Amino acid sequence: MMESNKQEKLEQLFREMSNCKNCCHLVKKNGKDCSLINIYQEPEFYQNIPSIWTDWYRRVDADIMIIGQDWGPYEEMKKFHDQYLLDKTPNHWNYLIEEEKSMTKKMLTKYLMESSKGTNHEMKESDMNHIYVTNAIMCARKGNHYRGDNIQLKESTIGCSRFLKRQIEIVNPKIIVTLGYYPLLSLSHIFHFKIEDNLTKTIEKMPEIQVQNYRIIPLYHPTAQVNKERQIAQYERIWKS
After folding, report:
1. CATH code for the structural domain at 3-47+61-75+102-239
2. How many Cα atoms within 13 Å fall on the side-chain side of residue 232?
3. CB within 10 Å: which end of the chain, N or C, has fewer?
4. What is the reported pLDDT for 100?
5. Closest Cα to residue 193, out of 173, 218, 223, 174?
6. Within 10 A of 23 (CB to CB), how many other CB atoms are there?
7. CB atoms within 10 A of CB 89
8. Which of 224, 188, 214, 217 is CA-nearest to residue 203?
9. Could you tell me the pLDDT band of residue 42, with boundaries at 50, 70 and 90?
């Protein structure tokens, strides 16, 4: 499939996603607002957020797809969007991506590079630009910060799984990497395989999962309290042929 065709299919998918309201009215039993913000209603917004997590259009022919949990707070996305609009040049875009890098993104890049050393796929930091990065939950959180009580993880993950499935079909990566439990839960729902009730048990039982033409490598979250050796051991699986 030609890259331009993939991009057209992806943009059509985002247009469909703009009409989704599944998670826009969620509340918990205690009355706390857990609703999400659909960022796809305005193409000018979602196409202009400098981040390794939202730079879809340059990566549709990627061999590796990384799936995180969710985009994070809407206000953070809006801040970088507004800064980019002040200077819509490639240099400013790249500068803002560097500014935006969180500890998660720094550790993810570090583990990918370290795990690839001595293989035929040794990575440089710039190679991150060739990895398609997305999330199990496609909308953004309300508020300014990550909080455990402002999102219904399981419900929103399952609700978004049909959109993640379409992204996988469009990009058609060779390897799918999941960061943490909920992205793997989404894939188990999409491809109908069973996982354990926590990530550690799942990785111990199924360190790699083959479904259709995809190799799925479940990873601990890069900032999880898991020692480096266990982290790297899973990342190394990415580079095995």
Report:
1. 3.40.470.10
2. 10
3. C
4. 76
5. 218
6. 21
7. 9
8. 217
9. confident
Q: Which residues of 55-83 are buried (b: 16+ CB within 10 A; e: fewer)?
A: bbeebbebebbbbbbbbbbbebbeebbee
Distance between CA atoms of residues 84 and 94, nearest Å = 10
Query: What does the buried/exposed string (b/e) look like for 185-200 if buried means 16 or more CB atoms within 10 Å of the residue's CB?
Result: bbbbbbbeeebeeebe
Residues 193-210: tens digit of each pLDDT: 999 999 999 999 999 999
Q: What's this model's pTM, rounded to 2 decimal places?
A: 0.92
Which string of b and e fits 97-130 if b means at least 16 CB within 10 Å?
beebebebbebbbbbbbebbeeeeeebeeeebee
- For residues 150 and 139, the answer to whether their CB atoms sit within 8 Å is no
- Read out DSSP for 96-154? HHHHH--HHHHHHHHHHHHHHTTSTTPPPGGGGGGSEEEEEE-SEESSSS--TTS--HH
Name the one residue in this structure whose structure tokens are 């040049």: 89
- How would DSSP label each residue in 151-213? --HHHHHHHHHHHHHHHHHHH--SEEEEESHHHHHHHHHHHT----SSHHHHHHH-SSEEETT
| Contact indicator for 141, 151 with CB cutoff of 8 Å | yes
Instruction: Tell me the C-alpha to C-alpha distance, in Å, between residue 80 and each of 140, 176, 236.
Output: 14, 27, 33
End-to-end CA, the chain: 23
What whole-number distance in Å separates Cα of residue 207 and Cα of residue 215? 11
Q: From CA 185, how far away is CA 205, in angstroms rounded?
A: 15
- Asked if 140 contacts 74 with a C-beta cutoff of 8 angstroms, the reply is yes
CA-to-CA distance for 239 and 112, rounded, in angstroms? 9
